[in-house]
Amino acid sequence: MLDSCKLKSACNLPVIYNKKINTTGTSNADVPLSDPGMYQLDITLKRGQSLAARDRGGTSDPYVKFKIGRKEVFRSKIIHKNLNPVWEEKACILVGHLREPLYIKVFDYDFGLQDDFMGSAFLDLTQLELNRPTDVTLTLKDPHYPDHDLGIILLSVVLTPKEGEHRDVTMLMRKSWKRSSKFQTQSLRLSDVHRKSHLWRGIVSITLIEGRDLKAMDSNGLSDPYVKFRLGHQKYKSKIMPKTLNPQWREQFDFHLYEERGGIIDITAWDKDAGKRDDFIGRCQVDLSALSREQTHKLELQLEEGEGHLVLLVTLTASATVSISDLSINSPEDQKEREEILKRYSPLRIFHNLKDVGFLQVKVIRAEGLMAADVTGKSDPFCVVELNNDRLLTHTVYKNLNPEWNKVFTFNIKDIHSVLEVTVYDEDRDRSADFLGKVAIPLLSIQNGEQKAYVLKNKQLTGPTKGVIYLEIDVIFNAVKASLRTLIPKEQKYIEEENRLSKQLLLRNFIRMKRCVMVLVNAAYYVNSCFDWDSPPRSLAAFVVVEDMLEDEEEEDDKDDKDSEKKGFINKIYAIQEVCISVQNILDEVASFGERIKNTFNWTVPFLSWLAIVALCAFTVILYFIPLRYIVLVWGINKFTKKLRSPYAIDNNELLDFLSRVPSDVQVVQYQELKPDPSHSPCKRKKNNLG
Prior knowledge:
Blueprint (H helix, E strand, L loop, with lengths): L2 E4 L32 E11 L12 E7 L2 E5 L10 E10 L6 E7 L7 E8 L10 E6 L12 E10 L7 E7 L7 E7 L7 E2 L3 E11 L12 E7 L2 E4 L10 E10 L6 E8 L7 E9 L8 E7 L6 E10 L4 E4 L5 H13 L13 E11 L12 E7 L2 E4 L10 E10 L5 E8 L7 E9 L8 E7 L6 E14 L1 H7 L17 H17 L1 H11 L4 H29 L4 H33 L4 H20 L2 H18 L8 H8 L3 H7 L10 H9 L1
Parallel strand pairs: 1-5
Antiparallel strand pairs: 2-5, 2-9, 3-4, 3-6, 6-7, 8-9, 10-11, 12-21, 13-16, 13-20, 14-15, 14-17, 17-18, 19-20, 21-25, 22-25, 22-29, 23-24, 23-26, 26-27, 28-29
């Protein structure tokens, strides 16, 4: 179930409500309209019945929006090809007053086009009884066609007064994958009993192995399948496997488990179509509450509403050491805890839990001189701390351009080459959060225990923006574990925005590609000599190869021309855009590959350069004592028997995994620390305070 709470922290908000209200279920229609009290509206969107068909096939892909005062406060997931959808999603909304009704609007999702309106209704909040669950049936209408029958929406609502006490609210935020690209927040209170509290109860490790006998969605009798996973707010999208009904993905990723009893993972399979909406192949679910902990489960899931199976490996493990606490003066307990951490990652414990590479502690102290995002000349800043797919938030400091958070965040490090991202946002109750600034800090560049003022950068991390943030960071890790981790696939961020076509980005990637090509000038001269007929046999061979390539391209062009006549104008535009994006991404990948090789030898990251030297020295010593043919034999046996020894192992190339940790030139600029103004020095600040 989706627990999308559009909650703005209730801190510092005095709440007054009519004291004559009977909390045993009296209607609040008599509440004065000027009542400034806060109310919490808990809504369960149950299902829809007999909704309007908006697609050619006589179905729709409905989703629901909730609006109060023209502001969107909730959006449901999309139920594909269903006129009687079942959502069972929960929304938790803070309502400032009851004069504004809740508007419910239903739309049909259309990929790449404007979504079709399917009807609307409204709920008068003044007619609800306080503290009593109420089932509501709403008839959908279209104002332009009031006589049309558009179906009904079933809800369950509870309206409760909100007490106005101060609360320390820590918020967990995600970036939505929806097209609106809005930020939604989920409140999460710190424990009042424990000084530190775990924010998630466990980790769900998922390996997508393969698909079997999937439904053919294309005219050639094949599909281009990919899979989407969803657990609460968390989402993951697999790579696309072209032209196959039995795809082999071999992808691994993790979800955070917040509920003690588990949860439901929603899985949908899709066929990728260029220039038009992707085709739905089928769906299935995994009930985590039925799986035992600390054990790997192989699941073969039958796709509903379609054909075929998906094969997964699912493992539930205990929570990693991730916590939030208040910043306090060093105590003996803290010193003792640090000694235990140092012992845990000592060189003597190399083979103990290889996935646990190290420990990160981030103290978010304060920020100064932030940008004013509100019309009052102030901001309501809060801070997001991200390490790969782990995200934690501070509380919000209202109406302040120099906020003090004084929070301590701890993370487990799975990859020492990860980058810590700290972003400052302005909280807005009715809209998505406004960006104020961001810094990206590679873990290997951190100086332990030093409080530093970091200049905030823009979204692209290419230049400064207004304000600085004060952080104190400690990194403790085992160097041997970190080195071994470098040779396995890098963890992918599964909520990154998809690349969009950008003329500036395309030009930049082309220039980067051009620089890499210039390194291969000697090879280009060699190719050019083939056309100068310095060596007739070689030139003749080159001529034959090029002629064959040109003939193939002409045949493909003829086929494309015939196919394009059948496509509409809009499909052509989307197809061209996707090709341009693909070219843009390919240029970026090729240029980054060349830059990473260069930066390895440039000692951009000393740890990686030393690791390469140690590996080459070790290989040289091995070659001195062991003949090369035996090494190649052992390597070949290992590669060919890998699938027999571990059938579901994820394929990887150690050299490419190593290079993926080396930053490209673009990343070097993004991670470069800007020099703050001398007036922002922590030492100078202390002197000024003493003065």
